[in-house]
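Q: I'm a student working through a structural biology exercise. My instructor gave each of us a protein and asked us to get a predicted structure, then write a short paragraph describing it. Mine is LUD domain-containing protein. I'm not confident about reading structure output yet, so if you can add a plain explanation after the tokens, that would really help. Here is the sequence I was given:
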Amino acid sequence: MNFFKKLFKNYTESQLNKEINAQPVHLSLDDSFVHNFINKGGKFLYCTKISEVENNLKNIALENNWSEISCTDIDLLKIAGNLNININSNLNNHTIPFFTTCEHLIANNGDILFSSNQLGSQKLASLAEDFIVYATTSQLVKNNGEALTAIKTHFSGNIPTNISAVRNYTIKKGEDSFLDYGSSNSKNLYLLLFEDL
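A: Happy to help. First, here is the predicted structure for LUD domain-containing protein. I'll explain a few features afterward.
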């Protein structure tokens, strides 16, 4: 009799564990984005003060032995200007890490969306492999549709061009298929996420 109790008890416990594991998990936008972003190989640094952004930027440059970065954003130049790093405002040198903003952070897949506001006429694939992106928590959206709607609403009448996303945050040399040749959007990407809400 004792044997049947143990067997039945183990069966009900395993059924309960399966039911618990089968429950869908609902994450907030920021948790969902961070989870997907890190799973794709992105490096994420959360900041609550501009001094933390400056300190993290300095540490990223030290970690990678970067003595120069390229930046075209006037507001970001103020942040980077306080560091002992040479700032290049020309995007044509594709060997220098690129410090930029973005349009949106897409929670359901961990992508970062850019436009001509950040990239000018350059394609993502033609820019440096190393990106440092400054973004705010207010730029989080659920999916691509919400991101494109927000861009259309925010820039009504003057919608930016060259809208594209970084989808992979690890550089995989030699793994390009002929379908992806010359259009790889993989970047070694650091995200400095600033809490603004």
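A: Here are two points you could use in your paragraph. The CA atoms of residues 37 and 110 lie 4 Å apart. The first strand starts at residue 43 and ends at 47. It's a good idea to check both against the output above yourself.
Q: Great, thank you!
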